[in-house]
């Protein structure tokens, strides 16, 4: 399985959006069960978007090259579950590395004193990366099954692996 650079990028963007959406759920679901005011919920929502979105997009940009190399290494592996598993692990590692950098730089709102809190940020990395890979895979297989006209711009020089 080989992806074009565009398919790889769309998959990475999907993973980023999925990660931020999962973070929002991680923070908003407990708020729904606690007696928080709607104003406090909006503040939490705003903080997650204001901080997580740019950090996630930066991590995505820095993680594209390694994702490309991982995909190239896996291009002869036909089992979809292997790709999903490898990219889920990669997503968790990217999230953990990002969290480690934030902890080391003393980023506000992040503390190693609360390991469960750190896991809340790292946990969504695995499913988000798997979702991103799946989107790229589905797009690639849909385009290739559409026939030769759909393959315009999908030459061998354009390909990045999953």
Structural class estimated from helices and strands: mainly alpha
| Rg calc | 18 Å
The domain count comes to 1
What order do the helices and strands follow?
EHHHHHE
- Annotation, overall tally of beta strands: 2
Q: Any key phrases for this structure?
A:
mainly alpha; elongated; single chain; 2 strands; 2% strand
Molecular structure report:
Strands 1-2 form a two-stranded antiparallel sheet. The protein is built from five helices and two strands. It has one domain (3-149). It is an all-alpha fold. The N and C termini lie close together (7 Å). Helix 3 packs across helix 5. Residues 155-159 have low confidence and may be disordered. The chain is 74% helix and 2% strand.
Topology:
Layout: E1 3-4, H1 5-33, H2 38-74, H3 80-104, H4 115-122, H5 125-145, E2 159-160
Helix pairs in contact: 1-2, 1-5, 2-3, 3-5
What is this entry, summarized?
The chain has helices at 5-33, 38-74, 80-104, 115-122, 125-145, and strands spanning 3-4, 159-160. It is an all-alpha fold and 162 residues long.
């Amino acid at each position: 399985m080989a992806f074009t650079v565009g398919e790889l990028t769309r998959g990475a963007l999907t993973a980023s959006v999925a990660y931020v959406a999962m973070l929002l759920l991680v923070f908003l679901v407990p708020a729904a069960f606690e007696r928080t005011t709607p104003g406090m919920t909006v503040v939490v929502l705003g903080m997650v978007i204001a901080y997580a979105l740019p950090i996630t997009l930066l991590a995505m940009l820095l993680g594209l090259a390694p994702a490309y190399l991982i995909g190239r290494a896996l291009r002869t592996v036909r089992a979809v579950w292997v790709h999903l598993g490898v990219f889920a692990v990669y997503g968790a590692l990217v999230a953990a590395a990002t969290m480690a950098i934030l902890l080391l730089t003393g980023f506000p709102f992040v503390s190693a004193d609360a390991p469960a809190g750190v896991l809340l940020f790292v946990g969504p990395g695995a499913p988000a990366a798997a979702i991103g890979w799946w989107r790229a895979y589905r797009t690639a297989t849909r385009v290739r099954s559409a026939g030769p006209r759909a393959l315009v711009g999908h030459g061998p020089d354009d390909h990045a692996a999953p």
